[in-house]
Amino acid sequence: MRVPSLLFYRILYVMPVAESRPETHPDFELEKDHLSGTVAAMIRQIEFWEDRDRQMGADLETSIILGDQAEEFAAMLSPHVHQPYFGSLKVRVAGREQTLYVGKHGFRDVKGPHTVVSWDSEVGSLFYSQALGWTPRRGSAGVIRRRRQLDVSQKTLLRVTDLYDDEQGGDTGGREEVLLRRLQEGSTAGMRDVVETLQPEQNDAMRHPAGVPVIIQGAAGSGKTTIGFHRLAWMTNADRGAHRARPEACMVLMPNRVLATYAARILPELGIERVVVTTPEAWATGLLGLEKLEVTDRTLSLLLTDRDNTRRALAWRKAKLLGDARMLDVVRTHLWNRFNAALAGQSLRESVALRGREDQVFTLDEAALAGLLRDVFAADPLDGYRAGMRRAIEALALSTLNVPEDEEASVRRQLSSPLTNLLGRIFATTTPITEARRLLGSPAELAASGLLTEREIALLGTDPLSGIPTPRRAHADVTEIPLMLAVQAFTGGIGRLDGRTLEPFDHVVLDEAQDYSPLLYALLGRATRPGHITALGDMNQGMHGYKGPSSWEAVQAQLPGAQVLTLGRTYRSTRQITELGARIAATYNRAAAVQGVDRDGAEVQRYTAPAGPDGELPLIARAVKDAQAAGHTNIAIVTRRGVDADRMAEALREFDTDAQPITTQEHRFRGGLVILPVNLAKGLEFSAAIVASANADTYDESTEYERRLLYVSASRALHWLALVSTGDLHPLIA
To answer: Locate the UvrD-like helicase ATP-binding domain: which residues (predicted)?
Structure first.
């Protein structure tokens, strides 16, 4: 895959690979011969599919269809010829032994023994599992005799590694050996080796029973995003039955636009195309029909720039309240009052022509309309109250007038214009932006539901962000958007638009799930098939906690039956870097203890000096040169704020250090040395990272939010980490 020049891309440093030793596995030649046979069988099959003369049907049209299908099959199989499989299983069933080969794409050799099972099949799961028993859907129970990793590249067998072999005493330690080898090699393809090295806990999370909402909690580098993508691919497999997801009916929400672009390029490699990949804000504004609306995050701006802890705490509490799940019923009550008030004096009287009968008059007075509105609110239709009200009135008209089935369409057409006018008088003045802001500006309406306290209502009336500039053009803040979506959900509906029909998404994957408010979870649950949300997050990295849940229990309350699965290992960094991050996270950790892969690396580098005229710039320049001397090329200097990154990038040039500043999502990473603020570094990986101003003056030790920022800054590096400060380093990392 071509490596895209993207900023928000998991930048993995390719470590020098040790010179390969001669392969000494006793079965190497046997496996080499089997690989050659498999490659030949695949090529024969592709040639057969591509031969149009063999794809003949009963007539020309059938022949064309068969030929097109065969070409599609050939195109799907062709990319896998260079690596037909990556592992094998020796199984014993009903007294017979057979060897199954596992690859990224299934292949059936109709004329020989070179069949490959797909990694996402039920049989493929056995390769990753630690279980030894196997019960096929049909037939007798079996047992796993051997698991084997096969490193294949460009149709060539490179290495054979036994992971489990009952003749060698069981577990060989090979799985950890393969994993460490992959981590040392690194990759720029992001997911190139993931299917080959899924660990048992990752595999279990990915294959958690379909139809159950899943929250995957994992520390930085535990593979959450990867698991989410693979779970989505697994959900599209025919083995899922009634829970199978159609790729075009699925959605992946990523934290920013550039990561969304990257994900959209990666997902087709897993065999799933046409998935909607976007950001929460882009999805929301698209659903609201406000794509040109500028979305701001003024709360984050305040938290990153304002030193007034009282003002910061007030902004935090207000943002949390705006995303509280109770706001869904606050909005519902507000709309109930609005629409009932709009019904005053409304009625419908319309003459309807029917074949063979005198014109019939259909009438509805205010009381009847109020009764229908009450029924619609109780039914809570997916496509909203307006569409639900139209259907209810049409159904009543058809029933009251005793309309024959073959005339129903005619009656609907006759009622269309009068109904549109009536519904316009009831609903037309309700738009998501104006209605959400009208609600927030009315203490009486906020109090109507009885769900908010007087103190909470007063908090919603404050403006702690008054000192943060707003755009000149039309805009909305991220903290307001869930409230606007709630208005949209009740009035115009929420979900996936298929033509003119609104339907639930088949499956939704949420990345950085700790940053979605309980209100947004409630709305996403409404927009998705029950049990079909996969949330990936880490409460320890909740930099945007002002709009996120306080705990996963708050999410479970909005997704009935949701289960939290914890990934207990992190694979990103060396032991030295992982231990440092764990020390910071331990001061606020709400998750289980995280264990890193025992991958040794360089000690964490610390650069300190007394304050001088140039500040810490000479230290940063020295750290950059040390990282480069250690062989690293993709290096990040992480600052506390965007303005720090811009200022330092300019000043570092005086010290022969040219770092590309990245301060907005529009910037692109083109390799080499970058300098960026911690809020943009979140979710990224670099071969080496340098934390600037790593002291208590920059990251307030007494504030949990600041300790979270420090954790994110210190957990970006894969292989080499430096901490820089004039004066003392932060107590948690000194």
So the answer is: 197-574
